[in-house]
Amino acid sequence: MLFKNIQMIDPSFRVLDDMSVAVKGDTIAYAGPGASLPEGDWGEIYDGAGKLLIPGLYNIHCHTPMTLQRGFGENMTLQDWLNLKIFPFEDKLNAEDIYYAYLLGVAEMVRFGTVANSDMYFFGDSMARAVIDSGFKSNLSIAVTNFDDDPYEKHPKYQENLMLLEKYHLGGGGRFKLDLSLHAEYTSTPKVASGLAAHCKELGLNMHVHLSETRQEHEEGKIRREGKTPARYFYEQGLFDSPATAAHCVWVEDDDLDILADKGVTIAANPVSNLKLASGICPIPKAMARGINIGLGTDSVASNNNLNLFEELKLHAMLHKATNYDPTLITPEEAFACVTANGARSQGRAGCGSIAAGHKADLVVIDTSAPNMQPCHHQLYNLVYSATGSEVLMTMVDGKVLYREGKWPTLDIGEVRRHVAASCKRILRELGS
Questions:
Q1: What is the number of alpha carbons within 13 Å of residue 47 lying toward its C-beta?
Q2: ∠ CA(284), CA(206), CA(167), 5° rounding?
Q3: Distance between CA 433 and CA 425 in Å, rounded?
Q4: Where would a tag sit more exposed on the chain, N or C end, judged by fewer CB atoms within 10 A?
């Protein structure tokens, strides 16, 4: 496909006019002025008048199959929400539920310009098949929880991780990547945490963890670990010896941020979810001052209630201005990097996260003629502060169109909706709701 006469955001976040971007296979073959476009048969020619081409967005912390629990538990504290609503619901899930719930999440994400996620849930085989079948990209992990004294090698997730590694890792032309995951400090033992960390390092994979999401989690963690914060605990167990993404980080302390910076850990901030659950606000300016890589995640739709990264983008760009009484904090360029290049970096995806020749063709077309995008004094600023996600006309992953103007070419969206509705009906009946 050839995008002609289109605005484009380049790797330096400049908005360039009258550009041409040519896609060959799964790769961007050319990105530059139309006058310098090499001759060739590029297939479909896409008229870019009134449109903006941006790199695909990265959702680096979510629990995609929880689409089934959208709106299921509201106005509750985190612990009540988990114990009274979420965990009982999850006990009723089966492999087919997870597969179609994941596909519904993919449909929602590509509708809003997301091309990749970092996921943490269970029924790994079902999730992996959904990623491969849909054409989406994912760093997918199965969260390990443990409350006994058995080592990691005796945990069921050890064997499941080995199966996923052999069967799916780097499948779909590299779209699927297996990460390892420890759910949290409060759902782990040192024996399992250190064993998982050693396995991750041995296999050369990435690590994904929940870290200091709530004050209760953080302070009770210090009591459990003899004064050590959850970040210090993870550090001492070796969880950060592999490339790691730590979700939330709302209650991290200054010493914790120093650890994250020293070990090159990415923070996955989840502003909407953390506000809805009244967990707090991640200290992003302090993290940025230390050079920590910052990405954004939606968390689950049960606590968000959608997978629309444009909402996270705008809130992230504004929230810290208000809480620090400084309107100069978090520039639009810095905010947009969080959902593009920084996200690709967190996933270890070289040649992704920006529009450049030789990079993967993960591209999103934005309708800049929409009323909320007019007038335009600066297109990137409109994108960060004015866009809602409804302006997305097309989402392409590795050169394949996954969404285009109300259609999902790789999904039978009607079948997905039917299966999801049937799953919810059955589970609610089994719960007596």
A1: 2
A2: 140
A3: 10
A4: C
